Amino acid sequence: MRISVIGCGYLGAVHAASMAKLGHDVVGVDTDPAKVESLAAAEAPFFEPGLPELLRESVGSGRLSFTTDTAEVADAAVHFICVGTPQRKDGYAADLTYVDQAVAALAPHLAPGSLVAGKSTVPVGTARRLAERLAAVQPKASLAWNPEFLREGLAVQDTLHPDRIVYGVPRDGVGGDAERAEALLDEVYAAPLAEGVPKLVTDHATAELVKVAANSFLATKISFINAMAELCEATGADVTALADAIGMDVRIGRKFLNAGLGFGGGCLPKDIRAFMARAGELGADQALSFLAEVDSINMRRRVRMVDLAREVSGGSVVGRRIAVLGAAFKPDSDDVRDSPALNVAAQLQLQGADVVVTDPEANENAGKVWPTLKFADSADEAAQGADVVLLLTEWKQFRDLDPVTFGKRVRSKRILDGRNVLNPQAWRDAGWTYRALGRP
Ligand SMILES: NC(=O)C1=CN([C@@H]2O[C@H](COP(=O)(O)OP(=O)(O)OC[C@H]3O[C@@H](n4cnc5c(N)ncnc54)[C@H](O)[C@@H]3O)[C@@H](O)[C@H]2O)C=CC1
Ligand SMILES: O=C(O)[C@H]1O[C@H](OP(=O)(O)OP(=O)(O)OC[C@H]2O[C@@H](n3ccc(=O)[nH]c3=O)[C@H](O)[C@@H]2O)[C@H](O)[C@@H](O)[C@@H]1O
Predict the structure, then answer these.
(1) Residues 73 and 142 both lie in one domain
(2) Domain total for the chain?
């Protein structure tokens, strides 16, 4: 089947390469010529485990190509919209400029009977609005919403073997032929469906809501445990033991109960804010008022980490050498969008600390956002002469640090574990002052 993928960033590049892996003939479209050039040369423009191998295989075999010209995808049967929907600069709402531009560029090239399948995360109601616009240009095309649930760092595996596949198909006469939309998506996802991945078919609005509801639930789970961490800090209790204990209840589950510096990235923070903004537009703002609390609990963790760094530095960080381990918003990614680690590093620098950051993959991206920070190639190099070390992104190489040998690098053995991943006893036994969020 011939497929186009419009927007080849963290989501689209992986989707395009994975669809080619499933045997489809795929063309990726992006307005960024440098990204297209890199992908066309089978080079991943960002770090994502497994993506380089997929690109090499499918670009090499000719099943996957990339272009900046939307006209080249006119013969595709299904067009996936994967462009960005960032937070608007003037508030919480999602910026739909890229979605609107992508659909406007695509519409004149749509073949009768083709399907536009939105994957970008959008405010509820967007699919209907786009369907009305498409109908005016190519009434024989259909539009579905097919939200994506992949996690960065595990994106290839999540795309090829998802937990579920959701189709939002036209149900009220707007957006074309529901049966055809479902049949085309079934053809796209024939391999995972044959593996037994559950499929849910619903209307546009429900599919749009499923995506933001899922991300809101995940964000709420993280902020819940971080609120418990605040209580633990006030009482001397241990949030990691608390999470283990409540997580053993199968109704609760242990996943996404890792307390620490909280959530960041290009999705959870902006998605909960866009959801609140949309609820407000719909006159249902009260329904989501709890998400404002989820957001503020999350942002408080960053402030708390800066306060802790100041506290262990004797009341001020001015002139202190601080080594920050991690810049990406999570391990196994080079993404620094709304990264808690980078935010803390920058706050400490603004307060007068001499900050050296190291991240196995994200130094370059972090340097573009905060060019005044210093960067090191390894934890050992960053820690040279440090007064305090902060572990803020839990890459394996940081989790595995040996407190004895690592202790030889620093000036003062003080470590703040922003992700609760180190063994406190082992670090204390090696002479370190160990502090963490939500742990005594
Ligand atoms: N990153 C992730 O893990 C996931 C992202 N999503 C959603 O997917 C969407 C995309 O997210 P990311 O890939 O992270 O963003 P991104 O910023 O990495 O990629 C967006 C890409 O779209 C391109 N683009 C912008 N306008 C275009 C146009 N008119 N035509 C063609 N290309 C255009 C940009 O150049 C960029 O390469 C967002 O709505 C996001 O919420 C959903 C699930 C997972
Ligand atoms: O819409 C999206 O883009 C995606 O957003 C998240 O995926 P992602 O942002 O890649 O990463 P997560 O693994 O969800 O982590 C998000 C943030 O939460 C933090 N986190 C996660 C889990 C936890 O227990 N504690 C915690 O602080 C991570 O450090 C990270 O900063 C969702 O997990 C995906 O299902 C969704 O598709």
Answers:
(1) yes
(2) 2
Domain final residue pick, 197, 227, 262 = 197
For atom 22 of ligand 2, the residue with the nearest CA is: 256
Pocket test for ligand 2, best of 221, 222, 275 (most atoms within 8 A of CB): 222
Under DSSP, is residue 338 helix (H, G, I), strand (E, B) or coil? coil
If asked whether residues 181 and 225 sit together in one domain, one would say no
Protein residue with least CA distance to atom 13, ligand 2: 151
Q: Is 267 a catalytic residue?
A: yes
pLDDT (tens digit per residue) in 266-320: 999 999 999 999 999 999 999 999 999 999 999 999 999 999 999 999 999 999 9
In sequence order, the 6+-apart residues with CB closer than 8 A to the CB of 24 are 1, 2, 3, 63, 188
Please give the number of the atom of ligand 2 that sits closest to the Cα of 10.
3
Instruction: Tell me the ipTM for this assembly.
Output: 0.99
CA 83 / ligand 1 centre spacing (Å): 4
Instruction: Please check whether residues 425 and 325 belong to one and the same domain.
Output: yes
Neighbours of 134 (CB within 10 A): 22
Ligand 2, atom 12, lies closest to the CA of: 151
Place of tokens 């529901």: 178
**Same domain? 212 vs 292:** yes
Backbone angles phi, psi at 167, to 5 degrees: -115, 125
Length of the chain: 440
**Residue 116 domain boundaries:** 2-197
